[in-house]
Amino acid sequence: MTAPSVTNPATPGLLSFLRKDTVGGGLLLIAALTALVWANSPLADSYFAIRDAEFGNAAWHLQLSLGTWAADGLLAIFFFLVGVELKTEFTHGDLRRFRTAIVPITAAAGGVIVPAIIYTALLTSYPETLRGWAIPTATDIAFAVAILAIIGSHLPKALRIFLLTLAAVDDLLAIGIIAVFYTETISLVPLLTAVAVIVVYGLIAARFQTFFVERAWAAWVILLPLGLIAWALMHASGVHATIAGVLLGFTIPALASRRRRGQDRQADDDDRPNLAEVLEHRLRPLSAGFAVPVFAFFAAGVAVGGLDGLATAFSQPLTFAIIAALVVGKPLGILASTWLVTRFTSAGLDPSLKWPDLAGVGLLAGIGFTVSLLVAELSFIPGAPEHDYAKVAILSASVIAALLATLVLGSRNSRYRTAEGATLDVDHL
C-alpha cells in the first residue's frame, strides 16, 4: 500500500525501486545464493567467521553473533511490517469482512496443519527431528508475491488478494507458533516490562498520529527508541524478539485521525493518510532492501560438502519430510480446506477464480524460505547435521515449489491472456 503524498512527494528513485515486489524477491534470492556459494567455496572459513563473530552487551543478554543479530534483530523489522499489514487488513482490508476473509483464512490454516501432519508422520521414527515440525508451515510473502507479479500479468486480481490474505494469516499463525512452541524459558519481569513499553508505544502512536505522519523525523526520534527498548526487553525475557516487532506493528493506528478543528471538514476523509500506511511506505525499502536479504545471507549459508554432501543430505528422512511437506502438503492443505469451507458453508470463492489458479497459489505457498529458515534456526542446534539438512531441504523445496508454481500459473496466465485477446477481437467487430 502506498502512502499518500503528504509523507514525501519527492521519494528518491532508489526507495521506489525497493518497494517493488519483484525487487525484494530478487534481492532475497541473490543474498541466499551468494551465501550458499560462499559457504561452499575455498573461502568458506571467512563466511562462517563473519557469521559467527559476536558483539553486543552481555549484561542485556545482547552479546550475539552477526547471524543471530540478523535473525532476532533485523528480521524484527520484517515482522513489524507484517504486524502493520495485518492491522490494516483487520481494520479496513480483506480481513475486516468475515464472509470475504473466511476462505483464505481457512486455506491458511489448512496450509499450516497439513504440512505439519505430513512432517510428523514421516518422522515419527526419528524423535530427534520432531522439534522441527513447524518448519514447513510458513509461506515467504516476498518470494511468493514477487513470482506472482512476474508471471501473473493477466491473472485475476482476486488471486493476488487471496494470496496476500492467505500469506498474512499464515504469518500470524507462524508468529503464534514461534511464541508458544519455541520459547523454552520465560522471565516475567522483562516480558511484562516489554508489554508495558509496547502499550505506551501504541498510545503515543495513536495520540500523536498526525504529528508522526506530517514529520518524517518524529517516528525515528520518538517511536524507534521505544521500539528498541521493547525489542531488547522481549529478547531478555526469552520470548523470540521478533514477536516484539509484530506486537509493535499491531499498535500502529490504521485509520486516519480526525481533522483538527479549523481544517476543511468538507475534504474527503478517505484521502487522509494513516500512520500504518505511512510507516509501511517508509520502512518497506529498509525491510526489502536490507533487513530480509541480510537475514537470508546469514541463514542460507550452509556447507553442503559438495556432491557427496548433497547426496548425504538428500538421503536423510528429515530432508525428504520437509520437501514433501512444503511441496505437497502446502497445496494439498490449501486446496482441501478451501474446498471444505466452500462446500459446507455459505462462503464462496470470488467468481473470477478457478481451482487451477488456487493450485498454483498453493504451490507458491510452498516457498517457505524466510520464516522456515528462522524456525530451522530455532529447532536445531547450529552446526548439528539436522540443522544443515533442514536448510538444504528448505532451499530445495522453495526452488521446486517456485518452479512448479511458475509452470501452473504461467499456463493459466497464457489462457487468460488468450481469452482477453479474443474478447477484444469480438468487441472490435
Automatic annotation (TrEMBL):
Protein's cellular compartments: Cell inner membrane; Cell membrane
Gene3D superfamilies referenced in this protein's UniProt entry, alphabetically: Na+/H+ antiporter like domain
Membrane topology of the entry: Multi-pass membrane protein
Molecular function terms from GO: sodium:proton antiporter activity
Transmembrane segments: 22-40, 60-81, 101-121, 133-151, 158-182, 188-204, 216-233, 239-256, 286-307, 319-341, 361-383, 389-409
Entry-linked InterPro entries: Na/H_antiporter_dom_sf, NhaA
Catalytic reaction equation(s): Na(+)(in) + 2 H(+)(out) = Na(+)(out) + 2 H(+)(in)
GO biological process, one term: regulation of pH
Any single Gene Ontology cellular-component annotation: plasma membrane
Keyword terms, alphabetized: Antiport, Cell membrane, Ion transport, Membrane, Sodium, Sodium transport, Transmembrane, Transmembrane helix, Transport
Family, similarity comment: Belongs to the NhaA Na(+)/H(+) (TC 2.A.33) antiporter family.
Physiological role: Na(+)/H(+) antiporter that extrudes sodium in exchange for external protons.
PANTHER family: NA(+)_H(+) ANTIPORTER NHAA, SODIUM ION/PROTON ANTIPORTER NHAA-RELATED
Name of this protein: Na(+)/H(+) antiporter NhaA
Annotated organism of origin: Brevibacterium sandarakinum
